[in-house]
Amino acid sequence: MERRTFLKSIGAAASMTALPLQGLSAAAATPVRYGMSPYALAKYTARINKQLTPEMLKTFLGFSDTDAKGMMRRLMAENILTAPDATGISRTSTEYLADFKARRDKVKELISRLNETVDEVEESHTTDIPDDEDQSSTARDTT
Question: What's the count of helices (H) and strands (E) in the chain, helices before strands?
Fold first, then answer.
C-alpha cells in the first residue's frame, strides 16, 4: 500500500466520526454489539443526533432501563447533555459539540500537514538511479 493511500485511509477513518447518522429507525431496534465502550457509544449517539433519551439508548444500543438512566445522569454530570426539557429530551450541549468540532478540525489540519511532509520527503528522495547497463559498463571501465 502506498503512503498516500494509507494516509487517506487514516483520514477517512478519522472523519467517519463526523458523519451524522440520520434516520435511525425502528428497524435498527436489534441491539448490535460494537468494539466500543457503552459510554463511548452513548456519547457518539448524543453527538450525531444532537439529543438523547433513555429510550434511544435502550432501543439503539441495547441498554437496560437502569443502565440507560445511569448513563443519562453521567452524561449530564459531564456537561455532554443538558437537563431534559418538558418532553423528556436531553439536548447535546453546544460546548461539547464545539469542542468536538475543534478537535476534528485539528486532526484534519494535522493530516494535511502530514500529507505535505510525506510529499516533500518523497520529492527529496527521488533521484536518478542509473540503469543496470550503465553500472556494468562503468564497472568494466574502472578495471
Answer: 6, 2
104-142 residues labelled b (16+ CB within 10 A) or e (exposed): eeeeeeebeeeeeeeeeeeeeeeeeeeeeeeeeeeeeee
pTM of the model: 0.52
Q: Which three cell numbers stand for residue 105?
A: 478540525
* Distance of alpha carbon 109 from alpha carbon 64, whole angstroms: 40
How much is the average pLDDT of 45-62? 91
- Euclidean distance between CA atoms 124 and 111, whole angstroms: 20
CA atoms within 13 A on the CB side of 140: 5
Q: Rounded to an integer, what distance in angstroms lies between the CA atom of residue 129 and that of residue 135? A: 10
Q: HEC states along 13-69?
A: HHHHCCCCCCCCCHHHCCCCCCCCCHHHHHHHHHHHHCEECHHHHHHHHCCCHHHHH
